[in-house]
Amino acid sequence: MKTPLLVFNENGIYCEAADVYLDPWRPVDKAIITHGHADHSRWGHKQYITHTTNVPIIKHRLGEINVSGKEYRETFTINNVTFSFYPAGHIIGSSQIRVEHKGEVWVFTGDYKIEDDGISVPYEPVKCHTFITECTFGLPAFKWTPQDEVFSDINSWWASNKAEGKTSVLFGYSLGKAQRLLKHLDASIGKIYTHGAIENMTKVIRPMVDFPETTLITRETKKEGLKGNIVLAPPSAHGSTWIRKMVPYETASASGWMTFRGARRRRAIDKGFVLSDHCDWQGLLTAITETGAEKIISTHGYTDIFSRYLRELGYDARTEKTQFEGELAELETKKEIEDSV
């Protein structure tokens, strides 16, 4: 039996013909990396290959690593296997990985979304025979509102809180979500303050994106100066002693999980904005159709339900277990929080 071009093993997604891994979750000799989130770019590999924009991001997170950058659509060959990166639209610097060998083409998406967020290079469909797709939000219940409407709601919420003399505390992951929020906040309403984890990551990305001005919260920041303004913070800051300085405040979270009211209640959040850096149900189906692929492999998310639906549509669809966790994995590590305060 012919060995598949990509296989899933205990280390990650492996291309035997090239002896290279894609987003491996255990240390390997050579790793091709889709983007900077912790579940996809892990420490310990001897060599990293990623998109040029992602190089400073993963170096910020992982330290001094052996990493080289490639541009979108730039081909590079390892043992007669041709690889190239294509925009994934997930976060800045995110990529899909196209793998071609002996006329066979596979595409590994990593994480992706098809809505243009105004920061990332927009998602680009890539024709292939086999498509490896996440399905973090692979249920029909997930249907995203256009982001312009979401940001209008966020800015209105901030303005309303300001009128009541309250600080607005908005939670979003320090890489990706926080910068997307920052880009679309209406700075005419007031000042934008940031938690250290977000400020540090945004500094890395500022040379690539035109962001509004931010002010880092430090021990010297006065409570009175925060009133009426907005604070961008990682989800892990909620319930910490750090947030006490914001009183009186209103909290909000920007996440695809805010689709469900129960998720907001469990996290003790005052307001939920449905905003995700992953595809919704229709986005996944649209992306799959545009690839022209006949074989679909679903990873991390509602894999069983999503694959069963694809089989009903006539696809050769199956699931594979990975250590990718989608939006759940973007939570900052304890060390990142400690380093930022």
From TrEMBL:
SUPFAM superfamilies: Metallo-hydrolase/oxidoreductase (SSF56281)
Recorded GO MF terms: exonuclease activity; ligase activity
Signal peptide (UniProt feature, chain positions): none
InterPro entries: MBL, RibonucZ/Hydroxyglut_hydro, Xnuc_lig_assoc
Keyword ATP-binding in record: no
Superkingdom, natural source: Bacteria
Protein keywords: Exonuclease, Hydrolase, Ligase, Nuclease
E.C. designation(s): 3.1.-.-
Entries under PANTHER family matching the protein: BLL1145 PROTEIN (PTHR11203:SF49), CLEAVAGE AND POLYADENYLATION SPECIFICITY FACTOR FAMILY MEMBER (PTHR11203)
Name recorded for this polypeptide: Ligase-associated DNA damage response exonuclease
Organism of provenance: Aquimarina celericrescens
Taxon lineage: Bacteria, Pseudomonadati, Bacteroidota, Flavobacteriia, Flavobacteriales
